[in-house]
Amino acid sequence: MIARNPYIANLKAGYLFPEIAKRRREYAASNPGAKIISLGVGNTTEPILPHTNAGLAEGARKLGTAEGYSGYQDEGLASLREKISSVFYSGKFAIDEIFISDGAKCDIGRLQLLFGSGVKAAVQDPSYPVYVDGSVIAGAAGPVSAEGAGYSGITYLPCTAQNGFFPDLDLIPQNCLIYFCSPNNPTGAVANRGQLSALVDAAISKGCIIVFDAAYSEFIRDPELPKSIYEIEKAVQCSIEVNSFSKPAGFTGVRLGWSVIPKALKYSGGESINADWGRIMGTIFNGASNIAQAGGLAALDDEGLKEMRELTDFYLGNARLIRDALQKLGLNCIGGDNSPYIWAHFLGRDSWEVFSEILEKCQIVTTPGAGFGPAGQGFIRFSAFGHRADIEEACVRLTSSL
Ligand code: PGU
């Protein structure tokens, strides 16, 4: 018999979102008439808009023709990488610094292979669970030290109302990977230019690498707020950026994203991280679907960018409705302006208890803040991904039943 990977045993519970789905199923089974509305997992609900969808359809059609057929394309279509560089980074990156992926989550998991089990990690607390759970699975973190505490070996950087949801950079250890997400999941907070500049300075002075998750960058409406870590000049020396078509183009089920690994980024021994990433991706990843890439190209031309704006505006409209409803209840909340998440404080309460209360009283599924890390205790995350009629109904239920 073969023994289990001991690192997997360090995971304290199932992955957050399947756990929530399980509780929803249990509730539905014992309340068969309930019309449950989900403001839980951040999963897109609206159809892919026509121009982008035509790009996907055309990609599929071409595969059935002798001239248009294509097979493996390991690093991604050159035209898509070029387009990503020009649309998101003002052409700052060469195409071999941009790697097309099947989504940001998949790359966040794979990126850990670059650094091995000896690497230390620091995360915003609360944070998207994949940074921490991925580190645990890779052996870069140990077990949970106590109930309600985080994993040993991970440095948690509390992001609270007291610090404006931006962490104290003095807490970052030397030579670690810093996972940083802005617009943030789950808090909805967006770091400003001064804050990102300070983060980059801290990373450089401490010998750290930032893994910047920009999956929600297209929800930023305030022109003063940076959409990419590379808007800070020195970030090319110390940062990897991951991004995705999932939320702005409705590609959660299509699967398409990218990572930027600048050639200027080096390990402590001076070796190229970009070269290693090419080696890893060439070995264990055979490229994103060429149909998805055709859709991605359509999403980034003028018509496609208009559609992205329309789709993200729609979800931001939902976010405003939810936030207004929560504020009517007298709850303190942030997010929802430049992000599809609203982070609401239920002072002194246990988040899983509040999750159950909202499910029982309003038949609404949410995400308990404690699932995102110790500093999430007492908070609930409301996702703005939903059909408008469902969001309106959810707001009525919240204000009348909670
Ligand atoms: N990065 C962040 C910060 C995310 O919130 C999500 C999705 C992803 C990456 C995933 O991007 P893909 O390109 O689609 O892989 N977060 C959702 C969905 C839950 C999940 O497990 O990914 C959420 O509800 O937090």
Please give a structural write-up.
The protein has 402 residues and is α/β, with parallel strands linked by helices. 39% of the residues lie in helices and 14% in strands. Helix 3 packs antiparallel against helix 10 and helix 11 runs parallel beside helix 13. It is globular and about 55 Å long. Ligand PGU binds next to helix 5.
Q: Helix/strand-derived class? A: alpha/beta
Report the span from N to C terminus: 52 Å
Global morphology = globular
Q: What does the oligomeric state look like here?
A: single chain
Contiguous uncertain segments of 5+ residues: none
Question: Biggest β-sheet: count, sense, barrel?
Answer: 7 strands, mixed
Helical residue percent band: 25-40%
H/I helix tally: 13
How many beta-strand segments?
13
Elements, N to C (H/E): HHEHHEHEHEEHEEHEHHHEEHEEEH
Mean pLDDT metric: 96
Bound molecules: ligand PGU
Radius of gyration: 21 Å
* Beta-strand share of residues: 5-15%
- Side by side, the strands of the main sheet go 2-8-7-6-5-3-4
Index terms:
402 residues; alpha/beta; seven-stranded mixed β-sheet; binds ligand PGU
Lay out the secondary structure:
Layout: H1 6-9, H2 16-30, E1 37-38, H3 50-63, H4 78-89, E2 98-101, H5 104-111, E3 120-125, H6 129-137, E4 154-158, E5 176-181, H7 193-206, E6 209-213, E7 239-244, H8 246-249, E8 257-260, H9 273-284, H10 290-299, H11 302-328, E9 332-335, E10 341-345, H12 351-362, E11 364-365, E12 367-368, E13 379-383, H13 388-401
Parallel strand pairs: 1-11, 3-4, 3-5, 5-6, 6-7
Antiparallel strand pairs: 2-8, 7-8, 9-10, 10-13, 12-13
Helix pairs in contact: 3-10, 11-13
Bound molecules: ligand PGU.
Ligand PGU is lined by residues 17, 41-42, 103-106, 128, 181, 185, 213, 215, 244, 246, 252, 257.
